[in-house]
Amino acid sequence: MVTADMVGKTLPIAVTQEQLGHLHGDSVMTLTDLDSEKEKARLQQKDTVVMDWTVQESHVGMGLGGSEVPASLFQATNPIFILLFGLVFTALWTFLGKYSLEPSTPAKFALGLLQLGLGFVALWYGAQQADARGMVAIHWLLLGYLLHTTGELCLSPVGLSMVTKLSPSSIVASVMGAWFLASAFSNYLAGMIAGFTGVSRGEGEAAMIPPPSETVHVYGSTFGTIALTAIVSSVLCFLLVPLLKKWMHPESD
Questions:
Q1: Amino acid 65: pLDDT
Q2: Is the dihedral angle over the CA atoms 235, 156, 253, 103 positive or is it negative?
Q3: For residue 55, what are the domain limits?
C-alpha cells in the first residue's frame, strides 16, 4: 500500500485494476491503458505488469500488486447460489404447502419478477455508492446476483411445467418452443441494451474506455431504469394473480 513517505518518489509498481481511476502522470489510468500494458507484458513473456509510477498525495492508501479477480469468475456465482438455495426453496414450498400457504404459480412468477427488480436496485444503489475513482464494492454485485437467483428459483422450476399443463395437448410442443423463444429474445434484448450503454470513446484504434468515474453512473442509470420497469411489472402481475388463477385449471395453481 502506498504510504505518505512515498509521495514524490518514482517507483516501479506492479499494476492491477487497483490503479484504475488514479492519476498516472497527467492522465487518469483507464482500463484501455491497463489492457495495453498487459499486452506489452504478454509479448515480453512477463507474468506481471510493472510500470514506473510517480507517487502523488492522492495515491496514499492505493494498493500495490496483489491479485485480481477475473470478471469471468463471477459466471460461477449464479450456479453456486442455485446449488445453495435450490433445496431451501424446495423445502420452503413443501412447508408452506402443508399449511395451504404456498403461493400460486402466477404469484411465484410475480415474486420472481419482483426479485429481478430488487437485484437491479442493488446494482443501481451500488453505483451510487461508488468512490471518487468510480469503484464499487463487490458485495453489491453479489447481492444483485443473489436476488436474481432467488427470483429465478421462484419462476424457472414452475414455468415450463405450467406450459405443458395449461397448453392444449395438440400444441404443447409449439408452446414449449414459444417459451424457449421468449428466452432467446430476452438474450437478444439484453445485447441491445448493452449496445445502447456502450461507454467507449473514439473509433478504430483510437477507441478507449473512459475511467470508471465517468462510466459508473451510465450503468447505474441503466440498472435503475430496468429495476423500475421490473418492479412496476411485478406489481401489475400481482394485481393479475386472482384473474390468472381463475383462468387456470384448479389442479395447476
A1: 67
A2: negative
A3: 4-59
User: Which residues is 50 bridged to in the sheet?
Assistant: 14
Instruction: Please give the grid coordinates belonging to residue 7.
Output: 509521495
109 falls within a domain: yes
Classify residue 216 as exposed, middle or buried by CB count within 10 Å of its CB (0-12, 13-18, 19+): buried
Q: What value does the mean pLDDT take over residues 106-110? A: 92
Report the C-alpha gap between 142 and 78 in whole angstroms.
9
User: Which stretch of DSSP H or E encloses residue 13?
Assistant: strand 10-14
99 and 223 belong to one structural domain: yes
How many helices (H) does the chain have, and how many strands (E)?
6, 4
What is the rounded distance in angstroms from the CA atom of residue 105 to the CA atom of residue 253?
6
22-37 pLDDT, tens digit each: 777 777 887 777 778 7
* CA gap 13, 50 in Å, rounded: 5
Could you tell me what percent of the chain has a pLDDT over 70? 93
Each residue of 213-227: pLDDT tens digit?
Answer: 888 888 899 899 999
Tell me the residue type at 14.
Answer: A
